[in-house]
Batch of 2 targets.
Target 1
Amino acid sequence: MSDTRSGSGYVEGEFERDTDYIEDRITADGSSPWPVEPGRYRLIAARACPWANRSIIVRRLLGLESAISMGLAGPTHDERSWTFDLDPDGRDPVLGYERLQEAFLARDPEYSRGITVPAMVDVPSGQVVTNDFPQITLDFSTQWTAHHRAGAPDLYPEPLRDEMDEVMQRIYTEINNGVYRCGFSNDQKAYDKAYDRLFTALDWVSDRLADRRYLMGDTITEADVRLFTTLARFDAVYHGHFKCNRQKLTELPVLWAYARDLFQTPGFGDTIDFPQIKEHYYVVHADINPTQIIPQGPDTSVWLTPHGREELGGSPFGDGTPPGPVAADEEVPDDHGPGGIGHR
C-alpha cells in the first residue's frame, strides 16, 4: 500500500484511505485463474512501507523464499509509482521494469487506481495479479502450504480465525491506519478525534498483552505481524512526523517489551530497515515535512535490549522452528540495523 495521499480522500477533515485494490487471488484449488506455482510469481515490496513489510515478514516466517521471489522498490517514490532505484541500472532484475507501474499497465493499459506495494506479479506475463495487501499474506498462509518450510508456524490457525479477524480489523482501522488518520488530518477537530482513537486502541492492545505473550496467546500469528510493523515505525516516524505524541513507544512498558520481543525473533527485526523507513516518510510526505530533512534519531540500538517477555511463557513458533538465516541477497545492510550508522 502506498504511503501517500494519492487515491485517498477526506470527509470533514478526516483522512480516508483508498482501498480499491485488484482483488484476484493466487489459489491452490483452481478456483482462480492464478494457480499456486513455485517460481511463477514475484512479490514486489518495499522495506519502507508497513503494509509491504508484513508480506516480507510472512514470506520469511513461512519459508517461501524459494517459491516466491522478491523484488524491492526503493524508499521514495513520486506520484506515478514506486521505482526500482536500488537495483543495478534502476531496473528490477527479473521483471526488467523501472517502475512498478509497468506491471499494472501490463495488466490494464487504462489502469488509473493506486500503484501500491505489496503486489504479486506474474513473471511470465509481467502483469500484476493482486495488490490486495491483507489477502496476500493470508493466502501465503492458506494457499501456499505445500511450499512452507519444515517447522513453519501456523500464522492463521483455523480455531482462532473468527477472533483473529476481529482483532486484526480493529488493529487495522484504529492503529495501522490510525497513525495515518492523525498525520493526514486536515483540521484540528479531525486530528483530535484521530489521536483519541489511536491511543484508545493502543491502550486496548496493551491491556490485552499484559498477561499473554502474543495477541492470540502463546505463539505468534498474523495478528502480531500486523501490529508489529506499525510499532516498529512508531518512535522513528509516527510520534513526531504524524503527531502521535501522547507517549513514545519506549514510554509504553507493555507494548515496548512486546515490540522488542518480536523484533528479536527471527523473521521480524531482520526485515526492518530504519534509514529507508525514515527516508520514505520524511521525503515523500513533503506536504507534512516541506524541508524533507530526515532526522538523525532516535537511537535504535535500544531495540536489542532485554524485554523480559519470556516470563509470560509461550514460544514464538510453538512446536515449530524459527526461520534460518536471511538469504545473502535479502539482508538489511549492517549499517541500517539497530546501533548502525545513522541510528545514534
Target 2
Amino acid sequence: MAMHPRPASVYGLPTDIGAAHRGASMGPEALRVARLVEAIAKRGVDIRDEGNLGGPRNPLSKPVDGYRHLDEVVAWNRAAMSMSARILGEGRMPIMLGGDHCLAMGSITAVADHCRAIGKKLRVLWLDAHADFNTRDITPSGNLHGMPVACLCGLGPKELVGLGKHAPALRPDQIRQIGIRSVDAGEKRLVREYEIDIYDMRYIDEIGMRRVMEEVLDGVDADTHLHVSFDVDMLDPGIAPGTGTRVPGGVNYREAQLMMEMIADTGAMGSLDLVEVNPALDKRNATAKLAVDLVESLFGKSTLMRD
C-alpha cells in the first residue's frame, strides 16, 4: 500500500522500574546507538527525537501489598501518557522506547483516550512472550511489568487503572497477543475469563505466521488505529538475547519480518512501543540492532522485491 508515512516522534523512558532485572533502563540509548532514528528517517518519515523523559530512580525495594515500586511506576507512566498525548495532539506518531513493559500502560492509555476523542477504532497488538495479565493476587513476584494488560483492562491498583480519562482504558476485545509462550497458572484462568485473543507459539507453529497475522489484522480498516506494543522477548532468545525474561522457542527472524511487513501493509499503525531491550544482557547490541531492523519493516522496508 503506497502511502506517505505519517510524521513520528521518538522518546525514551530510561527505567527498569517494573522489571526483575536491572538494565532495561539502558534500552533507549542502545536503540539510538543501533541507529533507530536514522533507520526510520531513511523510510521517508519526518522523525523527531524528543530525548528521554525523567522520573524517579529504581529504589529496588520489596513489594508492598503485592506491588513493587507502585508510586514510581505511576510517575513514569504518567510521564509516558502525557508525552504520547502531546505527540498525538500534534498529529504525529508516538514511538516510546523503554524501559520495561510496564510503561505501555501510559503510552496505550494516551492512545485509547485519543481514539475515543476522535472516534477511531483502536486495536492493540501485544507482541510478547508473556501475557502480562497478572494481578497482585496471582503475581509470583510483584513486578509490575507482568501486569500492564490486566491494568489496562481494569484489573489493578486504581492509580494505574485510572491513569487516563476513561477507566478501564481498553476492552479485552481490542487486544491481540502474539508470540505468547509463558503464562502463569493464575494468569491462564484470568485471560480465559477475560477472553483475551492469544496467538501463542503453538498456534503459530500449527497454522503459520501468515494466517495468524491475517486473523490478527482481520477487520483493520482506514478507521482503525493500530498500536504495536513490541517486547523484544517475543523473539527467540537465540536471535535476541538482550532481554531480562528470556523464554526459549520464540518467534524467528523470518516470522518476525513477515509479521512486521503485514502490519506495515495495513497502513494503520498509529503508535509504537519498543521495550525490554537490555544491553547489559546482550551480545554486541545485537538485540537492539535486530529491533531496529524489524522497525524498518514496520515502516515499509520490504525484504522482498516488492518495493
